[in-house]
Amino acid sequence: MPIATLIAADRLDESLASAACARFGAVQGAWVEEGSAIDLHFANAVPQADGWEGVDLVAITSGPRRRALLVADMDSTMIGQECIDELADYAGVKPQVAAITERAMQGALDFASALRERVALLAGLDESVLGRCLAERVRPTRGANTLIATMRKQGAHCLLVSGGFTAFAEPVGAMLGFDKVRANVLSRRDGKLVGTVEGPIVDSVAKRAALEEAYASLELPVEATMAIGDGANDCAMVEAAGWGVAYRAKPVLADLADARLDHHRLDALLWAQGIPRAEWVDA
User: Fold this and answer.
1) Class of domain 64-80+140-283
2) 3-class state of residue 152 by DSSP
3) Which candidate, 151, 164, 229, 271, has a CA 20 to 30 Å from the CA of 123?
């Protein structure tokens, strides 16, 4: 019987839970967090909670409830920004770069080609801007620290896989507590960005491969894995995971993910894993 966690943080009472059961054709199960999250059981597939502002219905796949491997995208997922767009602002080309980014995340452009085109527009930018952009623009998504810290305390391995750049992914990964980081490397020469990346590009195929390599090396079944992202470049990874989550995602990803989180902080995914707030680690 399909199960989903109904989440309405700090405002979920019996009345709202009953209304959700009636609306979605579900049977109420047990509280995960009284007042915030409750499991619902469905006779058929879990529906979407589209149009219900502030309420998430997060479908739970088969396998262990608490996942042993998390593989996460960075830009617009673990952080609230698209780093290449912010970096382009310092080069005076943000509108051009942001337009390409949006089309790539919607799945309208090949990611690798779109990345090369955007990076070429950064040629000549002083490399010191990387650190300045990180300090001035990049901020974690709300709940990201708690999600990672709690899952690691529970014994999970956490991998950050980004189609962005190591100049941002490595410090972000360290700040949030990820075990490992994989991202693209910007080419530099004489203190300037060259306008290219070094080595193979971390695209959709590479992200899926990183997931598969991680659970194989940890000797985990795929059912124990979780992947989360927001755009087209995350589709293969999210689809291949035991539990694929779309976070405030583009339609191309939201339509294929096992679950969606559209309204709540990232740490709400702990409730979907059956972890009450008393077990959360505030980081």
Assistant:
1) alpha beta
2) helix
3) 229
Q: How far is CA 194 from CA 98, 123, 198, in A?
A: 20, 5, 10
> Is 75 a residue of the active site?
yes
CA distances from 26 to 7, 44, 53, 202 (A): 14, 9, 19, 41
Which residues on neighbouring strands pair with residue 157, listed in sequence order?
A: 69
Q: Which among 39, 56, 73, 234 is annotated as catalytic?
A: 73
**Maximum Cα–Cα distance for the chain, whole Å?**
65
Which DSSP helix (H) or strand (E) runs through 253? Answer: helix 251-254
CA separation for the pair 135, 175 (Å, rounded): 12
Residue 69 in tokens = 């491997």
d(CA 283, CA 267): 11
Distance CA 263, CA 271 (A): 14
User: How many angstroms separate the CA atoms of 177 and 157, rounded?
Assistant: 10
**Mind listing the pLDDT tens digit of every residue in the chain (283 residues)?**
799 999 999 999 999 999 999 998 999 889 999 999 999 999 888 888 887 889 999 999 988 999 999 999 999 999 999 999 999 999 999 999 999 999 998 988 899 999 999 999 999 999 999 999 999 999 999 999 999 999 999 999 999 999 999 999 999 999 999 999 999 999 999 999 999 999 999 999 999 999 999 999 999 999 999 999 999 999 999 999 999 999 999 999 999 999 999 999 999 999 999 999 999 998 6
Q: What residues pair up with 159 in beta bridges, in sequence order?
A: 71, 180
For the beta sheet containing 180-189, the strands, ordered from the edge strand earlier in sequence to the opposite edge, are 192-198, 180-189, 157-165, 69-72, 225-229, 243-247, 259-261
